[in-house]
Amino acid sequence: MKPGDLPDQSIGAADAKVTCVEYASMTCGHCAAFHTKVFPTLKTKYVDTGKVRFILREFPLDDLASAGSMLSRCAGSGDAAKSFDMTAILFERQEEWAFQRTGNPVPKLFEIAKQAGFTQDSFDKCLRDDKLLERIVAVRERGSSKFGVSATPTFFINGKRLDERPTVEAFDKVFESLLKAS
């Protein structure tokens, strides 16, 4: 589960006994549900207490998801906590920008990004960063070819795929078992 060329976005203690890797798409409704309903509890209970290191890897399902991933990366500028904050905002407000029925979704995405400190210039520069886009696509391709990821969200806990629905109870069961074992 080692990262590829693009550094992982991770929060939590680097030496935590448990590492959870999520492959997610910014336009995936199931990913948004996880990040708004399940992740806050897991973060408080396990990540913030140093028991679990949580890694988010991009698995964009479309161009708009790639744009969201790019903005999360640019918002953090290497600070994973800031990237996670931007990711949280984009998932919370996903209905507003990802599923517009008419018109261009980019202005709505910019409106959200402005609240995270983006200017029109920094927003445009981020979305025109072809190198970043290539690296995000490479994360997706590696997840697919090396780890068999074919849908989002997909989770690996200490290298083993979580085959249950991603509920707090499912994570509790696996995390607690691993934490007791060591």
- What is the alpha-carbon Rg in Å? 16 Å
The biggest beta sheet, please? 5 strands, mixed
* Large-scale geometry: globular
Secondary-structure element pattern, one letter each: EEHEHHHHHHEEH
| Class by alpha and beta content | alpha+beta
CATH architecture tag:
3-Layer(aba) Sandwich
Poorly predicted runs of 5 or more residues: none
Kindly identify the CATH topology: Glutaredoxin
The tally of beta strands, per DSSP, is 5
**What is the CA-CA span between the terminal residues?**
20 Å
Tally the helices.
8
Helix content: 40-55%
Total domain count? 1
Q: What percent strand?
A: 5-15%
On the 0-100 scale, what is the average pLDDT? 93
CATH superfamily: Glutaredoxin
CATH class wording: Alpha Beta
Strand order of the largest sheet: 1-3-2-4-5
Could you give a quick summary of the protein structure above?
The protein is an alpha+beta fold.
Features:
182 residues; alpha+beta; Glutaredoxin; 5-stranded mixed β-sheet; 8 helices; globular
Write the layout of secondary structure elements.
Elements: E1 9-11, E2 18-24, H1 29-47, E3 52-58, H2 63-76, H3 80-92, H4 94-97, H5 106-115, H6 120-127, H7 130-147, E4 154-157, E5 160-161, H8 168-181
Parallel strand pairs: 2-3
Antiparallel strand pairs: 1-3, 2-4, 4-5
Helix pairs in contact: 1-3, 1-8, 2-3, 2-7
